[in-house]
């Protein structure tokens, strides 16, 4: 396995959309990357939460009567790669703990420690090659029960010849810069759907997991993907909150406009009624002009 670097397609405003996927695909086409049609690739990241309090390690509560940090419930991520279905990587992110295990261990954790999957983020897509690099254009989809939502897109950039992160840094950095320059050129040339789109590097804290000095492997990739998914979820939630606020502000503005129009209509109606009353009062106050003629009786002579 080579050294991987994950790049998140991060729009500056709003959420991700199909136009962003198409734009990144155009970037790969501009760089003459070859599509590998036979490669089917995916990563699944499961957020697992603990149910009832039970005794155990792996973040389970302490025994009855115990206290302290050992008694806290902890969320855990389980990361699985399609090309190694027999292995799962369990991550407790706040404590920077990572464990490679097989499926039997996961079932044991679910049964004995009462962990259950609450949410799944699946990343899947197409594979491209360019020299010693393999690039995977991924679509991230969040599934909670029966509800699915698009989280965004990313590029999985892998440099195959070496597994040392230090040795790969230079060439990987040059490749990232080339991708960014090509993206900027396409946007400037009229890629209106991608204005503000950036390729953001995911930088996991490998040193805190004790992985910095080790050759790059699947545990590194699992940590990187968990960081990527958390960043995508955070951005998606912020975008949804911003959209909700904008809708609320628009509704409030519409209500204020309607109230103002109603007030203006009431004022106009009141003014019309007042004018009518004044007209009626003026007509009723005028007295008819009466001419009195005095008739004198004729005088007898």
From TrEMBL:
Location of the protein in the cell: Nucleus
InterPro entries per record: Mediator_Med20 (IPR013921)
Known role: Component of the Mediator complex, a coactivator involved in the regulated transcription of nearly all RNA polymerase II-dependent genes. Mediator functions as a bridge to convey information from gene-specific regulatory proteins to the basal RNA polymerase II transcription machinery. Mediator is recruited to promoters by direct interactions with regulatory proteins and serves as a scaffold for the assembly of a functional preinitiation complex with RNA polymerase II and the general transcription factors.
Gene: MED20
Family: Belongs to the Mediator complex subunit 20 family.
Gene Ontology biological process: regulation of transcription by RNA polymerase II
Species the sequence originates in: Chlamydomonas incerta
Assembly behavior: Component of the Mediator complex.
Coiled coil: 236-263
Gene Ontology cellular component terms for the protein in this record: mediator complex
Keywords: Activator, Coiled coil, Nucleus, Transcription, Transcription regulation
One GO MF term: transcription coactivator activity
Protein name (record): Mediator of RNA polymerase II transcription subunit 20
């Amino acid at each position: 396995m080579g050294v991987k670097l994950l790049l998140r397609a991060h729009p500056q405003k709003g959420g991700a959309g199909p136009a962003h996927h198409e734009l990144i695909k155009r970037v790969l086409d501009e760089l003459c990357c070859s599509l590998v049609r036979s490669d089917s690739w995916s990563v699944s990241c499961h957020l697992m939460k603990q149910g009832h309090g039970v005794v155990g390690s792996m973040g389970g509560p302490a025994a009855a009567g115990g206290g302290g940090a050992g008694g806290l419930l902890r969320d855990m991520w389980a990361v699985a790669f399609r090309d190694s279905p027999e292995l799962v990587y369990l991550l407790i992110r706040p404590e920077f703990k990572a464990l490679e295990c097989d499926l039997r261990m996961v079932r044991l954790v679910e049964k004995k420690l009462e962990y259950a999957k609450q949410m799944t983020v699946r990343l899947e897509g197409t594979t491209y090659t360019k020299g010693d690099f393999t690039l995977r254009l991924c679509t991230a989809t969040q599934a909670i029960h029966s509800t699915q939502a698009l989280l965004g897109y990313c590029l999985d950039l892998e440099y195959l010849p070496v597994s040392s992160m230090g040795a790969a840094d230079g060439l990987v950095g040059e490749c990232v810069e080339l991708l960014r320059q090509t993206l900027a050129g396409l946007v400037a040339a009229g890629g209106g759907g991608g204005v503000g789109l950036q390729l953001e590097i995911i930088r996991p804290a490998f040193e805190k997991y004790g992985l910095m000095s080790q050759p790059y492997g699947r545990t590194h990739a699992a940590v990187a993907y968990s960081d990527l998914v958390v960043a995508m979820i955070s951005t998606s939630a912020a975008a949804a909150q911003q959209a909700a606020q904008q809708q609320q502000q628009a509704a409030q503005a519409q209500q204020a406009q309607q109230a103002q129009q109603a007030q203006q209509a009431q004022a106009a109606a009141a003014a019309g009624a007042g004018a009518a009353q004044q007209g009626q009062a003026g007509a009723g106050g005028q007295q008819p002009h009466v001419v009195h003629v005095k008739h004198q009786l004729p005088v007898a002579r």
